[in-house]
């Protein structure tokens, strides 16, 4: 996270459970943890293929932010006592394969993957922000702050992908649509399983 930005640390390792809508918060934290885990694996796959290329430092920079996101959701899983999705081993493999596979298409392919995933995640985070605001923006102030910051980071990654010729990938719209359908399925499953 940027230096001087808002602190996203919890004051304690536990959150008062009686004051929250536990099913909603469990679903949000479970899926966001899974999504950040999957994003880490995508960037790991991209770095395995393109880490020493001219785009390697850019991918590494985005991956570093995703590592911070995952660390925060690791903390939130404990603080809110949320069971992680049982699909993490699958997302481990699927994320890496998606990252490496699109990176094998070259820099543009990796960036097309980044645009598709980050657009999906930004929209997903926006939906969660709306849900928490409807629930009680003051009660969920800290969680809203985290999700808004991470949404902004994901949008920045999306924009970086566009700046690095993602749309010039052969069959870009087909690739983007396929990846986004996979993201929607992963979100749906990770919220529930």
Description:
Pathway: Cofactor biosynthesis; ubiquinone biosynthesis. One of its GO terms (cellular component) is nucleus. It comes from Grantiella picta. One of its GO terms (molecular function) is metal ion binding. Keywords: Iron, Membrane, Metal-binding, Monooxygenase, Oxidoreductase, Ubiquinone biosynthesis. By secondary structure, the chain is mainly alpha-helical. The chain has a single domain (22-191), classed as Ferritin, CATH 1.20.1260. 74% of the residues lie in helices and 0% in strands. It is built from 6 helices and no strands. The longest helix is centred in the first third of the chain and has 29 residues, at 22-50. The chain is elongated.
Notable characteristics:
74% helix, 6 helices, 0% strand, Ferritin, 193 residues, mainly alpha, single chain
